[in-house]
Predict the structure.
Amino acid sequence: MREDDLRPSENIEDRRGGGGRFAARGGGLGIGAVLVLTLIGWALGINPATLIGGAEMVAGGGNGAYQSAPARTGTPNDQVGNFVARVLGETEDVWSAVLPAQANRQYEKPILVLFSGATRSGCGTAQSAMGPFYCPLDRKLYLDTSFFQDMQRRFGGGGDFAYAYVIAHEVGHHVQNLIGLLPKVQRAQRDAPDRATANAISVRVELMADCFAGVWANKMNQRHNNIDENDVREAVRAASAIGDDRLERQSQGYAVPDSFTHGTSQQRVHWLTTGLKTGSMKACDTFQRQ
Ligand SMILES: [Zn+2]
């Protein structure tokens, strides 16, 4: 993937470096909460999927205090920050055209928060172990770029386009929020008769975000002709490496379908490819087909 043509976004809130150290104060987080957080982080930290109604709800508003460095907003100068800014800028340009054309909505650009370690989010505590996520309440994307190294180390899922896909997936959740899907989903999950039903809904939301990431890549490539088959293979490898079935087998030796919340490897590859081939949001209706 070539990113030199991509316009760097300025909608980056940089809280890295010295910021975001978590300092429990007063009550702090109970040992139970910390344990739960650690477990969730362990389960989700290797997953570039959002945490809608996940760990952040357990973390609540966060009982700790943060010593955050004053956030700088704008395009970061360092290499990885600049890369993220360019990918984000391209999602802004693409979705500003695609959303009105395909969904009759105006695109509102989200803020991407870069952090290291832990930081406060509108959905509770953001910790790097959770992996990147989108908070629908403050409409911000949260990313600790050490996640990219994690992808490379743990799944061999590295490469610029694979990293871009992770960002585009989170932006996909923002698009879902803008088209009014996320609030509906949250209601449906609240009313779900059991956990399995709620999880099945989550899977559809995640697969749609994968498909939207594919739609974005399709349009980016039309504009810049900057990805090739190797890039796509890279992203597909990442998508298949981070499917829930594979994660679960790695961690407990077997897969439990009802606890899947992000889709199987095969499903993730299928939906990413669908978006990539069609460039159409309509083709991403994971609630009709799975
Ligand atoms: Zn997700």
User: Anything to note?
Assistant: Residues 12-284 form one domain. The pocket of zinc ion is lined by residues 49-50, 169, 173, 206, 209 (CB under 6 Å). The chain has ten helices and nine strands.
